[in-house]
Design goal:
359 residues, binds 6-O-phosphono-beta-D-fructofuranose, Rossmann fold, single chain, elongated, 38% helix, eight-stranded mixed sheet, 14 strands
Length: 359
């Protein structure tokens, strides 16, 4: 067997653990040759690949980033204004690959689905700090990002407390509020704002004033994709040629400006940015990445192509690429962590949200 591996989209912690699991499993159990495709789909477009030895895949388990490199720009179907998918398919055949394991998020899985329709044998492995992939309860990288954000909240709490300030922390997560919700609950935030529930500024002011009657500081965790009711998300820039053309960011500064005019105390904003994606994966993410990688190798060995490894009801299984492509998964009202937060009086900037969850 000759199997390609690529990592696509934004990096996250656990990518190397997954590469190692896929490659070692296939080498040890199926005597497979492993071809590392460099820089995501860029490697297929620019013909940059290298054979991975067993030694190349050793010692990489705790490393952040990806030894293969990645790109969240290269899209074979829209590359510098051209559809280069036929070139990519020819290169796949020239390389003599039996299949490619694609480790990525929704952008990668959407491209993978299109390539699978052209005849490429693909097994998908879900990764992203955003935790927003369809059909899976979890993606590796998410738990590590949540730990990093939680630590940041703990740090903001001590300085916010000393100065009696409103501390706003902006997280990543794109159009989903998973990181903000989980880290906000783990860090004991007073207000959590997520894209799934557009906020009302009056409600945030109310929550901060209520908090001020008990404690003279507040912690607000805001997801980069959060937006006001009848308003828009804060966009940093738009990028052409990318499967993910909108770069979000800046909502914490917007909110700081708005709250300063409404509240008595001082307000400070921190955007954590790419710190959330860097460094080593947690032990738990290493284990999860290893499990999904080994599971993907098993699908390859059984020639079960066109599928993505997912976790459902705490078990690993697989679904069709088309079930995952071109969609994302947000926080729903029946989410237990959301409901617990509401029970504890954490505000989501929405009047009577608790009453609508049915908890
Ligand atoms: O999808 C992962 C992610 O980190 C998002 O949370 C964020 O919006 C985006 O990628 C940032 O992308 P870039 O690395 O291109 O700035």
């Amino acid at each position: 067997m000759r199997i390609g591996i690529l990592t696509g989209g934004g990096d996250c912690q656990g990518l190397n653990a997954a590469i190692r699991a896929v490659a070692k499993s296939l080498m040890l159990n199926n005597n497979a040759e492993i071809i590392g495709i460099e820089d995501g789909f860029d490697g297929l477009l620019k013909r940059h690949v290298r054979q991975l030895s067993y030694a190349d895949c050793s010692g990489i388990l705790p490393l952040g980033g990806t030894i293969l490199g990645t790109s969240n720009k290269a899209n074979p179907f829209d590359y510098q204004g051209r559809d280069c998918s036929a070139d990519v398919m020819s290169y796949y055949h020239e390389l003599g690959l039996d299949a490619v394991v694609m480790i990525g998020g929704d952008g990668t899985m959407s491209i993978a689905y299109e390539l699978s329709k052209l005849g490429m044998n693909i097994v998908g492995v879900p990764k992203t700090i955003d935790n927003d992939l369809m059909c899976t309860e979890r993606t590796f990288g998410f738990q590590t990002a949540v730990s990093i954000v939680t630590e940041a909240i703990d740090r903001l709490r001590t300085t916010g407390h000393s100065h009696k300030r409103i501390m706003i922390l902006e997280t990543m997560g794109r159009y989903a509020g998973w990181i903000a919700l989980h880290a906000g609950v783990a860090g004991g935030a007073d207000v959590i704002l997520i894209p799934e529930f557009p906020y009302d500024l009056d409600e945030i002011v109310k929550a901060c004033e209520l908090r001020a009657s008990e404690q003279h500081y507040s912690i607000i965790v805001v997801a980069e994709g959060a937006k006001p009711k009848n308003g828009a998300m804060a966009v940093q820039e738009t990028i052409s040629d990318s499967p993910d053309p909108i770069r979000l960011g800046g909502i914490s500064d917007v909110l700081k400006g708005q709250l300063e005019t409404r509240l008595k105390g001082e307000v400070r904003a921190t955007a954590l940015g790419h710190i959330q994606r860097g460094g080593s994966p947690t032990a738990n993410d290493r284990i999860f990445a290893t499990n999904v990688g080994a599971f993907a190798a098993k699908l390859v060995a059984e020639k079960l192509y066109g599928r993505v490894v997912v976790q459902q009801k705490n078990q690993l299984t697989s679904v069709l690429l088309e079930q995952v492509a071109n969609q994302t998964r947000g926080v729903a009202k029946d989410n237990i962590t959301l409901q617990s937060a509401l029970c504890l009086g954490i505000s989501f900037g929405v009047e009577n949200l608790k009453a609508t969850t049915g908890f």
